[in-house]
Structures are given as structure tokens and as C-alpha cells.
Amino acid sequence: MDLPVMPPVKPMLARSVATIPEGMHYEAKWDGFRAIVHRDGEEVVIGSRTGKPLTRYFPELVAAVLTRLPERCVVDGEIVVVRQGRLDFDLLSERIHPADSRVRMLSERTPADFVAFDLLALGEVSLLDAPLSERRAALCEALRDSSPPVHLAPATTDVQVAREWFDRFEGAGLDGIVAKPLNLRYRPDARAMYKIKHARTADCVVAGYRYHTSGPVLGSLLLGLYDAAGRLQHVGVCAAFPMRRRQELIGELEPLRMASVAEHPWADWTDEAAHGTARLPGAPSRWSGRKDLAWVPLRPERVCEVGYDHMQGDRFRHTTQFRRWRPDRDPLSCGYDQLVEPVSYDLADVLGGGPDLAPPADGD
């Protein structure tokens, strides 16, 4: 491979801001694997956010790149998996598997798509120093005749349209908006863009905790919500505390500590089969590797309010943020019914520029 921009390349990143800034280029924030695709003739390398190759895990995308991207190019984008009109990160995560036979099987059962949103090189020319407006125009031209599973990310320069997308696209599994200055040069591994994500709160039952990797202080709170059948489901963790507060929490939670997990709602957490019918802490995962998933059971009697941005099915997609204790809340009242459910929106309308989407930005 001999391209003007060679792998590995760490992608340009975004930092969080509270509101959508005006006067920029706007795109949806995709919930998938960030990937930079290098193609030089018959050679294809798909690099991850860390620079490690993802190529072997997505053979169907390698085949698509060879027929739908220019012969020599470097494209930044996102790998996603779609199920029932929504992005599904859990299915996407399953695609990272050591067995080649399973990789091939999953490439047919849950095929991935690639959403392109930046162009780093074309032919013999590096575009890293070109402003975003030029890179976007070149990307639109390069993908003019492309087709699924390779998509051109919808974009606009109209901030009002971006605000509408922020609300509507969540129903298709997207989790916010990315804003980029129009004159922005491509800056690998720099937080030079802006991301705006949904911010919501929920009251959750604190049903356990894990120790911090540094020693006998609290690492994370294990959070639960009751489902319609009255079962406490593990929905995520809350982990960002100052070290002094981590030490204090161990003492504060000691009166709730259970001598054994046997009487806990999540008593079957070590039984792999139990994870098929309930959401429990410590679910087997290729991502956890040899990580110690042991946890300390607490009587589910204490409630805390947490901030969250996005749901993935029946759990929080990301680590939540602790807001406050809620001694006024009955733990049994902490159910899924308190969560905001976005209005359903078909991802095909996002990727395909459905009839109710606003016109794309100039040059798109």
C-alpha cells in the first residue's frame, strides 16, 4: 500500500458542549465503531479509533469498499449495524470475534454498513490540510455513485435543521449531533470538533458496587431498574467520583452490604445461562477479557439520581453521571417507565435522505 496518508491514522475527535453552536457544518453522531478506511487498488485496511485494524472482522465491508470507493482513497467514517430500522451497538460488538468461521457467519447474519463523513486523501493528494468545506465537496463527488452498504453521511449548514435532527434522529438510534467548523483542517487525535448529546436523568436503585482498580475504595456503583414484571434489571454503572469520595462511599454503603449474594436479585450473575433471560452484572464479554467482574452486593434500598445521554435497548449506553441521592424515592418505584422514549424514526430515512428531511448542505 502506497497512499499519501498511510495507516494507521487516529481520527479527529470531538469534545462535548451543551448546545449546538451556530455557523458550522452539522452531521448526526453515529453510534458505532469509528473507522478510517484506506484503499489502494485491491488492498484495503480498515483502522479503528486506536489505530488497530478492524479489517478481518468486516469482510462484507472490504468487498463493498472495493466496488464503491475510489481506487485510491482514505475515508473517515463509522461502521454501524442496523436492526429493525435502528442502530444496534450490541449486535455490532458481537462482530469482534476471534473465530474466523463466526466472523464469516456474522457478516451474513448481521452485515455492517459504513457511513462516510470525511475524506483524508484521494488519488495522489493528501487532503489533511484542506478545509472541511473542500474535503466535504470532494467526498460528495467521490461517493456520487455509491450505494449501500456504503453511505454518505447527511449534512447541513443550517443550524435549525441540525436542531431538528437532534430531536428526530434519536428515534433511529443516533445519539446527538457533531458540529465542525467549515474551515477546519483534519487534525488526527485532536478534539477539534464539537459533539452535542442528549442529557437526561433517571432515578436508579443502587444494588451493588465494584472496587476501584487502585485498591479498597469504591470503583463504580451498580445501578438497577425494575421491569414490568417486578424484576430488578442491571442497567449500568456510575463511576466518576473523586478519590476521597470513593473512600467515603465504602463507609456510607456498609450498612447495606449483604453477607452473601444468595438472597440478592442478581444472585445468578455467575450463571451464563441466566444472562439470557435477565440483565445481570458481569455478563460474559470479549471486551472484559480477564478483567475482574466481581462485585459487592447491597440490599436494594437506596436510590440515586444519575444523568444519562442514550439508551441501548434496556440499558444505559454509556457510564452515567452521579447527580444526588434520592432518600425520598421508594426503590420499587424506580422502573423503566420513567425513561424518555424517543419517537421512532427509521434509519433508512436518515441514510437515504427521506422525503421529510431538509435539503442537504451546499455541495452535498
TrEMBL record:
The keyword Acetylation does not apply. Its EC number is 6.5.1.1. GO terms for molecular function: ATP binding; DNA ligase (ATP) activity. CDD domains: Adenylation_DNA_ligase_LigC (cd07905), OBF_DNA_ligase_LigC (cd07970). It is an enzyme of class 6 (ligase). SUPFAM superfamilies: DNA ligase/mRNA capping enzyme, catalytic domain, Nucleic acid-binding proteins. The keyword Protein biosynthesis does not apply. InterPro entries: Adenylation_LigC-like, ATP-dep_DNA_ligase, DNA_ligase_ATP-dep_C, DNA_ligase_ATP-dep_cent, DNA_ligase_ATP-dep_CS, NA-bd_OB-fold, OBF_LigC-like. Keywords: Ligase. Residues 105-227 form the ATP-dependent DNA ligase family profile domain. Signal peptide: none annotated. It catalyses: ATP + (deoxyribonucleotide)n-3'-hydroxyl + 5'-phospho-(deoxyribonucleotide)m = (deoxyribonucleotide)n+m + AMP + diphosphate. GO terms for biological process: DNA recombination; DNA repair. Gene3D superfamilies: DNA ligase/mRNA capping enzyme, Nucleic acid-binding proteins. Belongs to the ATP-dependent DNA ligase family. This is DNA ligase (ATP). It comes from Streptomyces palmae. The lineage of its organism: Bacteria, Bacillati, Actinomycetota, Actinomycetes, Kitasatosporales.
